[in-house]
Amino acid sequence: MSPLFRRNTPAAPRDRLVTLVRKPGCHLCDDAQVVVEKVCGELGVPWEQKDITQDPELHDRYWEQIPVVLIDGSQHTFWRVNEDRLRKALGD
């Protein structure tokens, strides 16, 4: 299968990865996590969280935007996570 064909084929939910970039004590991060947990749980999409205070590269890149949601490594949104928009981005 050519890479071009794979790029145009939607990934199955289990093949996607949502990353929540956050920091401890951040109320917007807590709110974002609730949405990410709900949407990913309902769609069967794996997700992870990364602590911006433990990763200098993430800190430098996203400090002024947290929380940040990445889908498959690309930035999807920051500050507030919209449940419908996240669902749509994940193919629901």
UniProtKB/TrEMBL annotation:
A Pfam family recorded for this sequence: Glrx-like
Where are the coiled-coil regions? none
InterPro entries, per the entry:
Glutaredoxin-like (IPR008554), Glutaredoxin-like_YDR286C (IPR052565), Thioredoxin-like_sf (IPR036249)
Gene3D superfamilies in the cross-refs: Glutaredoxin
This protein's name: Glutaredoxin
Originating species: Streptomyces toyocaensis
Classification from the root reads: Bacteria, Bacillati, Actinomycetota, Actinomycetes, Kitasatosporales
